[in-house]
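Subject: design request, 792 residues
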């Protein structure tokens, strides 16, 4: 036999990783686990139990306790009691614990890798070489944030006890993404792992005990969605961090709407994998293997939509099929397997159904031809070609090893197809033309762009999505802010500014002609669609004028105008700054006019009114200054490459203005949004709307492009709700009553808007620490990480 023939017939021998240590650990625990509450293991006799299985064999691994109401209360209480002491530790003291956790995981890394593989069905190659190393790196990295917390985040402090809920696809890795920043920042934690994969979280709790982590700082509650739901609704938790499906994310957003819980949502995805004709096609094919067959495609950011340039589509499909044929699917503990098992029969059925639907809708199917193991839940690597962009398999997250392929002709078409998704988690771009890729990256509405690579993660680079993929970032500098709050935040508003309402509309005397201030939409003063106006009274009760009563149609027009003004974002930050300075100049020229308007409407004296106008001018200067200074970061993750963390605008933002400090309050909200490149639909304070309508005359003379600022006066609760429901509004800020804040959160789940509200509290608009600066620039932006490998 010739050597070439030997190569052709050579097959892999089994290369099994021993499960012995993991089996031993299960035995030590009699394959039965309790809950980890206040540093102790608890197995209440009355509690229900459930089982966890090995997806590769279908065999039971262990019996797990289901946390009910009493256990949820005890765990939250333990976290609440532990919080003050934990938060009072120095950064260095907390850093030592995080460092010790990293060391312990490192020491037990093989056990973690094997156990994860057994509980989840993913290959040992992935748990050993990707998941566990990333977990260790995460704890080391965050030991660093704990150490430097006081100097790096001097204006911030921990939030309190937090609830964290994670899915089954990366049980240990997502645990670390949640727990490490929370503990580093000084919070305490109640974590609920997914019901399919609780084991590594329980081992992690055991490991934490070895480090002497104080009781109550970490609590682990196992259980189904219902246990998670109890955490979400628990009044003593100050934040919920959730990773899971968009469907459950929506429920959680609604359930937390009437509380002041901070919320981050890491949800589903349908990420595009874009291959240009000038790409290194062999590398791109290898990239695809990592994009969609990594973890059996059960990856939120899986490159599940292949967009390939038409000129190379056939070549790519052929090479891909040849590569797919060589994939190895089988025992996850075999070190030479590419793909393991699907998490559970229910998930396998769902994948099968979606594939069938894809075929019915016209897709052509090509599947791996190997033999799947008899036991366990395996699904063959699958390629769907001829997929229509609007079809189910192009739009729905399949969460399985199924790639849907489409073609494009031009870069613009690629962007259009890539953005034709409700999700916005990640994208891969493959081209040897780096200029083209970097040109594309900002146009993709996603939180992460991988250029000539895919599924890269690092603790230093934030991860998270746009649109229905959720909001908030995990990892890095930006991820730390999700577990911190300003030391000096809003205060309870015992009494909002009392405003006199007109009792009668007296149009005699002052008003001989129509003085109704119009709406301001698309750079033009327009009459409200309703044809109605609302009276505005001065502090002395006399009629000051009338404002337009905006309605749904006016908001629609305003959002459309704001959408068209996206060129604002493309201006250089320097140009935006110049326009902001011009606004300051024009406001100052008319300062007397604004002072007297404020005096008449609010009853303030001249000195107070002048102070508000002068502070407003200064505030404009601040944001003109920050417009070109709130820049991104360059990360150096452990690869030959860089990750650029870019601060991008949110898009079209709705802003509901406060009644306090009518000019300064409005500007304090509007300016950071503008400085970051957002376009805005602004609802001015109902009683002081005339200040806003005076202000659009300043905008008109300051070169602000049409549509960048739109002002619709009317009832804030009504207009805010319309904005919350509008799918072309990407972010919404509300400074108003508790009801206005609650509505914004509750009705914003259609497109998962980024919401910030004052929670019915008051801000001191004259205090630059809480009402001005980078915190607001951060709120007005979202971070996109662009990964760029270098070298040959
Ligand atoms: P899931 O939403 O069904 O469950 C996730 C977690 O939420 C589980 O722990 C579950 O018990 C819990 N849960 C379920 N209902 C709940 C409720 N009403 N209240 C509170 N908690 C509840 O998701 P899954 O099937 O476990 O995971 C797959 C999903 O997770 C996919 O959509 C995937 O894209 C997403 N995911 C996102 C990311 C990301 O970073 N964006 C990462 C991994 C997975």
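Subject: RE: design request

Done. Sequence follows.
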């Amino acid at each position: 036999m010739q050597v070439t023939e030997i190569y052709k017939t050579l097959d892999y021998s089994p290369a099994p990783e021993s499960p012995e240590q993991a089996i031993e650990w299960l035995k030590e625990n009699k394959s039965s686990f309790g809950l980890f509450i206040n540093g102790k293991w608890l197995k209440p006799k009355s509690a229900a139990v459930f089982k966890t299985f090995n997806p590769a064999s279908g065999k039971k691994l262990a019996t797990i306790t289901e946390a009910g109401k009493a256990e949820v209360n005890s765990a939250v209480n333990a976290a609440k009691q532990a919080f003050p002491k934990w938060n009072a530790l120095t950064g260095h003291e907390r850093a030592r614990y995080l460092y010790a956790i990293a060391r312990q995981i490192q020491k037990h890394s093989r056990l973690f890798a094997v156990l994860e593989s057994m509980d989840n069905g993913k290959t040992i190659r992935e748990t050993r070489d990707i998941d566990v190393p990333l977990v260790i790196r995460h704890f080391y990295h965050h030991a660093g944030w704990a150490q430097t917390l006081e100097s790096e985040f001097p204006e911030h402090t921990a939030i309190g006890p937090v609830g964290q809920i994670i899915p089954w696809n990366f049980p240990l890795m997502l645990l670390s993404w949640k727990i490490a920043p929370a503990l580093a920042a000084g919070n305490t934690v109640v974590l609920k792992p997914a019901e399919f994969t609780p084991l590594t979280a329980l081992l992690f709790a055991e490991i934490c005990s070895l480090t002497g982590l104080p009781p109550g700082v970490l609590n682990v509650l196992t259980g189904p969605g219902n246990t998670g739901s109890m955490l979400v609704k628990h009044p003593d938790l100050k934040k919920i961090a959730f990773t899971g499906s968009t469907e459950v994310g929506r429920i959680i957003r609604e359930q937390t709407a009437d509380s002041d819980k901070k919320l981050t949502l890491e949800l589903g995805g349908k990420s595009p994998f874009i291959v240009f004709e000038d790409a290194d096609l062999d590398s791109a094919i290898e990239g695809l293997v990592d994009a969609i067959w990594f973890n059996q495609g059960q990856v939120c950011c899986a490159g599940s939509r292949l967009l390939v340039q038409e000129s190379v589509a056939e070549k790519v499909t052929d090479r891909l099929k040849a590569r797919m044929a060589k994939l190895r699917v089988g025992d996850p503990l075999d070190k030479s397997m590419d793909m393991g098992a699907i998490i559970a029969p229910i998930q396998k059925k769902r994948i099968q159904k979606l594939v069938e639907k894809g075929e019915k809708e016209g897709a052509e199917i090509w599947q791996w031809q190997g033999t799947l193991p008899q036991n366990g839940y395996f699904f063959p690597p699958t390629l769907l070609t001829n997929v229509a962009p609007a079809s189910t398999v192009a739009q729905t997250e399949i969460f399985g090893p199924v790639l849907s392929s489409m073609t494009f002709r031009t870069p613009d078409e690629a962007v259009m197809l890539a953005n034709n998704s409700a999700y916005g988690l990640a994208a891969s771009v493959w081209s040897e033309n780096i200029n083209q890729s970097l040109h594309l990256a900002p146009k993709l509405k996603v939180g992460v762009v991988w250029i000539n690579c895919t599924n890269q993660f690092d603790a230093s680079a934030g991860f998270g999505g746009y649109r229905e993929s959720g909001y908030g970032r995990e990892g890095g500098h930006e991820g730390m802010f999700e577990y911190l709050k300003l030391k000096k935040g809003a205060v309870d508003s015992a009494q909002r500014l009392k405003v006199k309402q007109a009792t009668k509309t007296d149009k005699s005397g002052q008003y001989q002609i129509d003085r109704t201030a119009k709406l301001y939409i698309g750079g033009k003063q327009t009459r409200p669609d309703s044809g109605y106006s609302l009276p505005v009274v001065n502090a002395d009760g006399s009629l000051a004028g009338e404002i337009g009563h905006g309605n749904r149609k006016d908001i629609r027009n305003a959002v459309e105008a704001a959408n068209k003004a996206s060129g604002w974002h493309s201006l250089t930050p320097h140009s935006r700054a110049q326009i902001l300075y011009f606004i300051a100049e024009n406001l100052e020229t008319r300062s007397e006019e604004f002072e007297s308007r404020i005096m008449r409407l609010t009853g303030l004296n001249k000195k107070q009114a002048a102070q508000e106008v002068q502070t407003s001018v200064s505030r404009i200067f601040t944001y003109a200054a920050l417009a070109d200074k709130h820049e991104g970061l360059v990360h150096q993750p452990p690869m030959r490459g860089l990750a650029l963390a870019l601060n991008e605008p949110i898009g079209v933002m709705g802003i509901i203005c406060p009644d306090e400090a009518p000019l300064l309050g409005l500007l304090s909200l509007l300016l950071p949004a503008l400085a970051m490149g957002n376009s805005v639909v602004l609802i001015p304070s109902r009683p002081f709307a005339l200040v806003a309508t005076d202000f659009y005359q300043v905008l008109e003379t300051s070169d602000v492009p049409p549509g960048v600022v739109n002002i619709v006066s009317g009832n804030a609760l009504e207009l805010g709700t319309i904005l919350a429901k509008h799918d072309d509004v990407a972010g919404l800020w509300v400074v108003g009553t508790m009801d206005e804040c609650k509505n914004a959160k509750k009705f914003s789940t259609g497109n998962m808007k980024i919401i910030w509200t004052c929670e019915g509290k008051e801000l001191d608009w004259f205090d630059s620490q809480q009402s001005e600066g980078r915190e607001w620039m951060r709120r007005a932006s979202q971070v996109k990480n662009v990964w760029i490998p270098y070298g040959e």
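The two ends are 37 Å apart (CA to CA).
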